[in-house]
Amino acid sequence: MKNKSILFFLFFLFAFTGCKYEEGPDISFRSACARVTGQWFVESLTVDGADSLSSFNNRFGNCLTYEFVDNGSQYFIVGFPCDSIISDGGSWSLGVKNTTLYFSLGKPYGPVGRTSWQIIRLANKEMWLRTEYFNYKMYEIHFKAR
Predict the structure, then answer these.
(1) Less CB within 10 Å around the terminal CB: N or C of the chain?
(2) Residue 28, number of CB atoms within 10 A of its CB
(3) CA–CA gap between residue 59 and residue 55 (Å, rounded)
(4) CA-CA distances (angstroms) from residue 97 to 21, 32, 33, 65, 76?
(5) Rounded distance, CA 64 to CA 78, Å?
(6) Residue ranges covered by each domain of the chain
């Protein structure tokens, strides 16, 4: 009976603590760092609500893969351009109760300084980020796991 009470309490705790990301998930048994880690491709990109994925793909190639290394301190961009493997890195970290993802980009994009992205969805196979850049436009990027 004691085990059932503990399980009920844990379920209640997880079910009613609230979601920290706008778009979920409500419950996850993996840490935020573990969910960020892995290979991702850009599934959707909008700038001020307008679809900008084709412009991104024309500029960087539609097979660009972002690989976030599991040590929590760096990531590598692989697959640029699409017909060869070129790795370049930057750094990444989670902040503000794991609701913000900070990262910097190296070549071929930059160097670009450290940017701050609000995590609006962080599931095992999806990561959605939003930021406002220096040009005062709202960028939203949806990644899908490879």
Answers:
(1) N
(2) 17
(3) 6
(4) 11, 10, 11, 26, 24
(5) 7
(6) 20-145
